[in-house]
Write a structure and sequence with these properties.
This protein is mainly alpha-helical and about 325 residues long. Helices cover about 70% and strands about 0% of the residues. It has one domain (about 5-315). It is found in: Mitochondrion inner membrane.
Length: about 325
């Protein structure tokens, strides 16, 4: 790679990150509008035309508020945890299969697993460095939940990888030209979607931010900029996971504008789940992961491995 290619890649990555952040801003607006209509009220509608500039006024408000920090907090880790959290969630986007193919990874799925598993450390650091019992409890809950569901998520993902026999994300597009994987493995797709909900700490699995018992969980001591960065990281992950669902089982046709309509629809489902379902009980969440989803994922893994072996035997 010469200097021009490097500069072009960096500029393209910067444009991608800016577009993701703008997308996150309007995802928050979509969420507030949809939740408003689900609860038979209007969402934000005062700022500008129908409340469209609301996310930007929220961002200005958050970043201009006074920054406070607990006196006994571990200052450096407390400040850096939200920054790393957003940085890692934006790093995920570099494996996006775009029309221009910004970075074409042969091992894109491995890159996704590595980056997504690093997000646990940021939550753990934020919860511990705040030096508050509430944030520590929220951090421990979140870490236990995320690590647990990473296991089943990885195993569900392996089942899809056996179908394409590759780690390249672009190969999902080739194999779904005639039929989407959701029709071939519908229960697997639903289980993967639920695992992704748990992985991103979203309702009904938002135990890291259980307002009723943890006063906002691991980010309870954060205000202004730190809170905004954690918020942006969470919504960036939601947007990425929505896109990843489309890549895996809804026809990864990145050369078609329908891909982005499907992305909006999946993001809407994330919000719809939040407006519909109450919070799950924590022991039931762990029970579902280890006693339900783990055996299910292992069974599906064996099934698709057998299917792949049988297909190869026919080809030979």
């Amino acid at each position: 790679m010469d200097l021009k290619d490097f500069i072009l890649a960096m500029l393209s990555s910067l444009i991608l990150v800016v577009c993701v952040l703008v997308g996150v801003a309007f995802l928050t607006l979509l969420e507030r509008k949809v939740l408003g209509y689900i609860q038979l009220r209007k969402g934000p509608n005062k700022v500008g035309y129908m409340g469209v500039p609301q996310p930007f006024s929220d961002a200005i408000k958050l970043f201009t508020k006074e920054q406070t920090y607990p006196l006994m907090a571990n200052f450096n880790i407390y400040y850096m945890a939200p920054v790393f959290n957003l940085f890692i969630s934006l790093l995920l986007w570099l494996c996006t299969p775009l029309l221009t193919i910004l970075f074409n990874y042969q091992f894109g799925i491995l890159y996704f697993l590595c980056c997504s598993s690093l997000g646990v450390y940021c939550v753990m650091m934020a919860g511990w460095a705040s030096n508050s019992n509430y944030s520590m409890l929220g951090g421990m809950r979140s870490v236990a939940q995320t690590i647990s569901y990473e296991v089943s998520l990885s195993l569900f993902l392996l089942s899809f990888l056996y179908l394409i026999y590759s780690l390249n994300i672009m190969d999902f597009m080739k194999f779904q030209e005639n039929i989407w994987f959701i029709f071939m493995c519908f229960p697997l797709s639903l289980a993967l979607f639920v695992s992704m909900l748990a992985e991103t700490n979203r309702t009904p699995f938002d135990f890291a931010e259980g307002e009723s018992e943890l006063v906002s969980g691991f980010n309870v001591e954060y205000s202004s900029g730190g809170f905004a960065l954690i918020f942006l990281a969470e919504y960036s992950s939601i947007l990425f996971m929505s896109m990843f669902c489309i890549i895996l089982f809804l026809g990864c046709d990145v050369f078609n504008w329908v891909f982005y309509i499907k992305l909006v629809f999946m993001s809407f489902i994330w919000i719809w789940v939040r407006g519909t379902l109450p919070r799950y009980r924590y022991d039931k969440l762990m029970y579902m992961c280890w006693k339900s989803y783990l055996p299910l994922s292992l069974n599906y893994l064996l099934f698709y491995f057998g299917l792949m072996a049988w297909t190869f035997s026919l080809l030979i």
